[in-house]
Predict the structure.
Amino acid sequence: MSTDQPAPDDPREDLQVSARPLGAGRHLVTVEGALDLHTASQLSDVLQPLLLTGGRRVLVDLSGVAFLDSTGLTCLIAAYRTARNTGARLSLIAPGERVRRMLAVTGTDQVLPSYATVDSVPD
């Protein structure tokens, strides 16, 4: 039997979030693991301070996200709203097929732009 949720001792349960400046007001936030009820706050804790400064471009690399649930999606939508309110720009980088499907089903892909690579994001 197959489920969409990771098993309790699945390594995807862990979420790794890191941020680094790319120069000229751009930051790259790299996310790896399961973005869900138990881990979404970790991403929010990194994204919100970057977005609250306004006028920045924050790129969120989702290529390492193996699982995204509604709480993870809500975290991304909250980040989008913060960006919109502060004048920051939020973009997603390389979401995998499962994540892209979730973004498309919910219509989130209509408001949060996705790019294949960091280099393909316009300035």
Q: What stands out?
A: The longest helix spans residues 70-86.
